[in-house]
């Protein structure tokens, strides 16, 4: 059981962060040529769609969005489920020679991102892979860092960051919870 310690971002703050990330992606890549967004299931998918919509509002260019299920690429697969199920990776574009922007909600140990990179490379070799994260909470176990960060929120191991999105939670916010024990990425 967890206790909410604080709401760190409300809907307006999340929207501002995602608009800023869209601007940073365009600036860093000197435009939108060869860009594609890939949301890591679950909460990375709606975030990728919002960033794509923001880029369209800025540049009037539609950036394709893919959905990535990393289930079979996790390094802790045997600890999660003895019968894992693939929940549909949907990449409607070739990844070869694309600048892939992986999108996820929270960056913690880095293991999810490592699994996502492995999954992308199983589909082909992109020109580049970049990482957009709504929340970076620290505590990396792998040498992975985000290229685009909505907000850095230093946490303890006894805290959990909950990103609430309407598709899953009927609200939009980022909360920090006290869980009293270690959480996982």
TrEMBL record:
Keyword Membrane part of the UniProt annotation: no
One example GO MF annotation: uracil phosphoribosyltransferase activity
Enzyme Commission no: 2.4.2.9
Gene3D superfamilies: 3.40.50.2020
Role noted for this protein: Regulates the transcription of the pyrimidine nucleotide (pyr) operon in response to exogenous pyrimidines. Also displays a weak uracil phosphoribosyltransferase activity which is not physiologically significant.
Catalytic activity: UMP + diphosphate = 5-phospho-alpha-D-ribose 1-diphosphate + uracil
Pfam annotation, one family: Pribosyltran
Domain Phosphoribosyltransferase span(s) in chain numbering: 12-158
Top-rank taxon: Bacteria
InterPro entries per record: PRTase-like (IPR029057), PRTase_dom (IPR000836), PyrR (IPR023050), PyrR_bifunctional (IPR050137)
PANTHER family: BIFUNCTIONAL PROTEIN PYRR (PTHR11608:SF0)
Residues spanned by motif PRPP-binding: 100-112
Name listed for the protein in its UniProt record: Bifunctional protein PyrR
GO BP, sorted A to Z: regulation of DNA-templated transcription
Gene source species: Flexilinea flocculi
Record family assignment: Belongs to the purine/pyrimidine phosphoribosyltransferase family. PyrR subfamily.
Keywords tagged on the record: Glycosyltransferase, Transcription, Transcription regulation, Transferase
């Amino acid at each position: 059981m967890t206790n909410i310690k604080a709401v760190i971002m409300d809907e307006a703050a999340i929207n501002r962060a995602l608009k800023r990330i869209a601007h940073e992606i365009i600036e860093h890549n000197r435009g939108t040529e060869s860009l594609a967004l890939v949301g890591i299931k679950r909460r990375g998918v709606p975030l990728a769609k919002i960033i794509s919509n923001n880029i369209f509002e800025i540049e009037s260019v539609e950036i394709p969005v893919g959905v990535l299920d990393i289930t079979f690429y996790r390094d802790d697969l045997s600890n999660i489920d003895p019968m894992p199920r693939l929940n549909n990776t949907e990449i409607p574009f070739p990844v070869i020679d694309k600048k892939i922007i992986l999108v996820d909600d929270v960056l913690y140990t880095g293991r999810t991102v490592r699994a996502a990179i492995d999954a992308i490379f199983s589909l082909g070799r992109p020109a580049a892979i970049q990482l957009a994260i709504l929340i970076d909470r620290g505590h990396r176990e792998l040498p992975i860092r985000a290229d685009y960060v909505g907000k850095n929120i230093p946490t303890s191991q006894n805290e959990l960051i909950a990103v609430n999105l309407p598709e899953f939670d009927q609200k939009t916010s980022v909360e920090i919870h006290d869980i009293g024990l270690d959480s996982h990425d």
